[in-house]
Structures are given as C-alpha cells and as structure tokens.
Amino acid sequence: MTPMWTDVKSVLPASGAEFPLCFSEKVETSVLKALELSRDLMYRDPEHPSSADRAQLIIDYSWEKLNTGTWRDVDKDWRRVYSYGCLFKVLSLCNGNPSQSNIQEAIRTCDMSFLMGASIMDDILQKLIFSKTFIFFNMKQKMKTCCASEPVINAAKELTRIYCPSLEHFRKEFLDPQKPVIIEGTTTHWPAFTEHPWSIDYLRTIAGYRTVPIEVGSKYTDEDWQKMEWDIWLSISCLIRRIPELKEDIRIPDYCCLGEGDEDDITINAWFGPAGTISPLHQDPQQNFLAQVVGRKYIRLYSPEETPNNPDLEKFPAFSQAPYQECVLGPGDVLFIPLKHWHYVRSLELSFSVSFWWS
C-alpha cells in the first residue's frame, strides 16, 4: 500500500457497511445501483480498471440533472449523487502510484464537488483535499502586478487615521456616532504579515491547483461581468471558506467584541484581484472592518444620509459633488465602514484584503 493511498484511506469508513448511500425516490434505482457497485468495488478491489469509468458515468449523469432547469430547483439528492461520483473518481485517481497529473485531476474533482455538489459523509472531500498528500504543488506562472494611476487625495476629505485605539475610545468616537476611520497597528501580529506573508507565491504553495469560481470584468455591474470556474491562482472573492489555511493567517479585530453577536456570527471574506478591479457604490448590511493585506485600494465613502440621492456615479455623475470622504488603504490598514455607508472601491494594484462583517 502506497503512502498516498494510506493517507487517503484514513479518512474513509472502515468498511462498506459503514459507508452510507441513502437517497430519496427521486434518484433512480439504476443510479443507486451504480453507486453501490462503486462503493463495493472500492473496498473489494480499489485498483480495478473499471473504477474510474464507473465514477465518471455517475458524474456525467448527475451533471445533466444539475444543469436541467434552474439551479434553485435542483434536488439536493442529485447534488449529493454528484459528490459521491466525485469521491469515487478521486479515490480511483489516488490509488496505486498516482502521477502528478492524476493528483492535479483529483484536486480539481474535489473542487468541482464543492462548487456543484453537496456535503457528504461529514465533508469527506474537504478532509481529503487538505490531507498532507495534496499539499505540495506549485504553479510556475507569474501574475502581472501593474499599478493603476495614483489618485490625488483631497486633504479636506481625507479619512481620519488613528493608531490602536482602545475599545472604549473606538466605541465613543467612531462606533456610536458611526464615523468611518482608518485604524493602524492592529494587524502587525497576523501570520499573513509575519510567519508567511501573503503573496502570489504563497497562494501557489497552499492552493495553486485549486479550482474556484472567478469573476470576470472590471466591475460587477458590467454587462459582460461573468462568473466561471477556472484552474487559476485564485483571482476571486470569498476565499476564506474554500482555503482554510488563509483563515489561520488572520485574526478577528478585537473591536468586533463591541457588537451584539458572537464570533460565529462574524462573516469573513477575502478579496483578491488585479489593478483596476472596481466595486461600484454599494452598502453593506452590517458594520465592516476592511483589512488591507497586499497592495493598495482607493476608497470613497458617502454617508447613508445621501441615500435619497440614488448614488450611482455612472448614471448620476452629479452625485460626485455630494459630501464624501476618501483614502488610499495600504497594507496593514483597517478601515471601519459603518453600517449602510455607501462606498466605492478601486484596486490600484494587485490587491488582497479581508472584510469582517459584524453587528
């Protein structure tokens, strides 16, 4: 038994009898039979040449079910069938002495399960992809890190900066009156800045061959803005849930304890994209700490009192004359964006930031 198969087998149930395959009547008997055969073959003869083909048939058939009608109407059992097919395919790819291309395909298959399937067997595919076996790939491409033009900040409108305010000072001066502020000096202890600074190379190391949804377009209101699945180096949003190693590199700001919710109620997102990426004016549903880790972003904020003016700078260019505050957020800066404050964001260079939504 190879070290890889030993590693993979450690996350599996000890026997087929402990391997659940329970579905509603919406899943045809023939499909359930194919799943049972794949399961039994995996325990009886994992190197059988038909294992991979049988798994692919399950994937292909369930894929058609996932793409029939609208996504919200897809029965969850078909998403689970798809995930089981992915699991059997991964196991067939990892058996014996797999090649680098086999492992890369196994990682992609896991990610497709995360994107299109549903959780099965206590997130077994998540456990597989973060087993030590899979963490050794690096990608060799380089990403352009060109910079956009530096905006000229109006000194009269520049956001206030403060260094490590106490909890009480932050509450009194900024949280209670709902005033935006840039907080400095509170992220220097993050592993993202110290033990393994975030960079393209670091992302390649921990997740270079991951498949993720990406957003294509300079801003999400463009007609040609798209979401798709690519094997690239994570030029996407919402990375924290998909790449748990990133969550270990950051810390929730202490000021979030001033909210009414628990730590589990804090929504954490990572945002990674090239220079020129724009988030048009929008509001967040909660208080927001935006922590900049890599690169710089230009940010302009408007008070929620301006909401009746319908602030869309493209459709209503005169709104740019309304009162606003602005800043360039750099590595280590944390911007407090109060609830419902309008904000426009533009990346000036390759940028990686983390947002914490809290109430």
UniProtKB/TrEMBL annotation:
<keyword id="KW-0479">Metal-binding</keyword>
<dbReference type="GO" id="GO:0051864">
    <property type="term" value="F:histone H3K36 demethylase activity"/>
</dbReference>
<protein>
    <recommendedName>
        <fullName>JmjC domain-containing protein 5</fullName>
    </recommendedName>
</protein>
<keyword id="KW-0408">Iron</keyword>
<dbReference type="InterPro" id="IPR003347">
    <property type="entry name" value="JmjC_dom"/>
</dbReference>
<keyword id="KW-0223">Dioxygenase</keyword>
<keyword id="KW-0805">Transcription regulation</keyword>
<keyword id="KW-0131">Cell cycle</keyword>
<dbReference type="GO" id="GO:0048511">
    <property type="term" value="P:rhythmic process"/>
</dbReference>
<dbReference type="InterPro" id="IPR056520">
    <property type="entry name" value="ARM_KDM8_N"/>
</dbReference>
<dbReference type="Pfam" id="PF13621">
    <property type="entry name" value="Cupin_8"/>
</dbReference>
<dbReference type="GO" id="GO:0005634">
    <property type="term" value="C:nucleus"/>
</dbReference>
<keyword id="KW-0560">Oxidoreductase</keyword>
<dbReference type="GO" id="GO:0046872">
    <property type="term" value="F:metal ion binding"/>
</dbReference>
<keyword id="KW-0156">Chromatin regulator</keyword>
<keyword id="KW-0804">Transcription</keyword>
<dbReference type="InterPro" id="IPR041667">
    <property type="entry name" value="Cupin_8"/>
</dbReference>
<dbReference type="Pfam" id="PF24472">
    <property type="entry name" value="ARM_KDM8_N"/>
</dbReference>
<keyword id="KW-0539">Nucleus</keyword>
<keyword id="KW-0090">Biological rhythms</keyword>
<feature type="domain" description="JmjC">
    <location>
        <begin position="241"/>
        <end position="359"/>
    </location>
</feature>
